[in-house]
Design goal:
The protein has about 110 residues and is α/β, with parallel strands linked by helices. A 4-stranded parallel beta sheet has the order 3-2-1-4, with helices on both faces. Strand 2, helix 2 and strand 3 form a beta-alpha-beta unit. It is globular.
Length: about 110
């Protein structure tokens, strides 16, 4: 029996304009074929619902989306929705970074 490590994509975005939203989409398409077991994403900013709609349209029920922006800050909010992650590895997704290698290397 071969063991295959599991992967969770984590993000805590601030999407407040159309350019950031488009960069998030381009970034998503650059690595989404990696097919992680978990997607845990917090979205803040004026266009958070547009970003959420896009991710739900691409991932369906495979994504957990949050809209946390507590006075305790980014780290506190991130910890609160990541506490139940079951994956072996966490990929830290930054919304304006593009994956330049074959996404299967992440697996």
């Amino acid at each position: 029996m071969t063991y295959s490590p599991t992967l969770c994509v984590f993000a805590n975005f601030f999407i407040d304009n159309d350019e950031r939203l488009q960069r998030m989409k381009d970034s998503f398409y650059s690595f989404c074929d990696v097919m992680p077991e978990e997607w845990k994403i917090n979205i803040r900013g004026r266009l958070k619902y547009h970003a959420s709609d896009f991710l739900h349209s691409e991932l369906g029920e495979n994504v957990d989306i949050y809209f946390l922006e507590s006075p305790k800050g980014w780290f506190f909010d991130s910890h609160s929705f990541m506490i139940d992650v079951k994956s072996d590895y966490i990929f830290f997704w930054i919304e304006d970074h593009i994956c330049l290698v074959d996404p299967h290397y992440l697996r």
